[in-house]
Amino acid sequence: MSQQHGFARNMRWEVIGTSADVNPDDPEPAVMLSLKSNEETRKMWPFEFECTYEVTLRREKLKCEFCVKNCADDLKDELEFTAALHSYIEVVDATDSENVYAKGNLKGNSYMDKEIDAKNPPLMTSDNDRLTFGTKLVDSIFLNTDPEVLLHVGNGAAVSVENTKGWRDHVIWNPHENMPQVTTLRNLCAMIYRARSSQPPNLALEEELFLLLMAIYTSTEAMAAWSKTTITADVKQD
């Protein structure tokens, strides 16, 4: 049975290493998790694989590296998959279109607008490099984006979610009034990189694909907001 956002997020991962193993006082702590194919995963996805996910906390960076390895015994079992890293970033107020917005080389880019139809989103063309949120649902998948898109968070700083290797698309999301039961959504936006499902990567025997998302933040003003986020960012002053 297929699951929204895939099955791996609902599986039990194993911690296979931390920086504290060799240096308890490491100023850049890291942890690596592993998920291997097993009886349960084969019911949902009949492939032999290993995924590793490493998160490193640096002084001004949060680095996330996701690796998928094909562990098949023969070449006929080429592995096809889709992956995404979700970075949920705190903003002051998503309804403040003057100060909270996403900005990048988006003008002329093709994107799928899931706000119009979530199951069969129409393919649109962006007419602006700037995307605001307001109070309606924003759920746009920009295809073949540049490596960097900035999210201006409303306090004079901008968080840059930067693709350094392996990702193709950029998802920008905020449901706001579509989920009124969650009152904090006006203070949250998602910047997601993914390997595109319409053209998923294929891995031959013993091949590995590393997907790396890097972030740097340099603004102490934005540190308080960033402490509640989960993946990568690069914060810059306007």
Tell me what the structure shows.
- 4% of the residues lie in helices and 43% in strands.
- The protein is mostly beta strands and 238 residues long.
- The chain is globular, with a radius of gyration of 19 Å.
- Residues 214-238 have low confidence and may be disordered.
Condensed summary:
The protein is mainly beta and 238 residues long. The protein has a single domain, classed as Beta-galactosidase, Chain A, domain 5 (Distorted Sandwich), CATH 2.70.98.
What is the domain tally? 1
User: Would you tell me the structural class of the helices and strands?
Assistant: mainly beta
Distance between the termini: 46 Å
CATH class: Mainly Beta
Q: What's the helix-strand series?
A: EEHEEEEEEEEEEEEEEEHE
Could you name the CATH topology?
Answer: Beta-galactosidase, Chain A, domain 5
* Oligomeric state of the chains in view: single chain
Radius of gyration using CA atoms only: 19 Å
Helical percentage: under 10%
Number of strands: 18
What do the pLDDT scores average to?
75
List the SSEs and their pairings.
Elements: E1 14-18, E2 30-36, H1 39-44, E3 49-57, E4 61-70, E5 79-80, E6 83-90, E7 100-103, E8 110-113, E9 123-125, E10 130-132, E11 138-142, E12 148-153, E13 157-165, E14 169-174, E15 188-195, E16 202-203, E17 208-216, H2 223-226, E18 235-237
Antiparallel strand pairs: 1-2, 2-3, 3-4, 4-17, 5-16, 6-15, 7-10, 7-12, 8-9, 8-11, 11-14, 12-13, 13-17, 13-18, 14-15
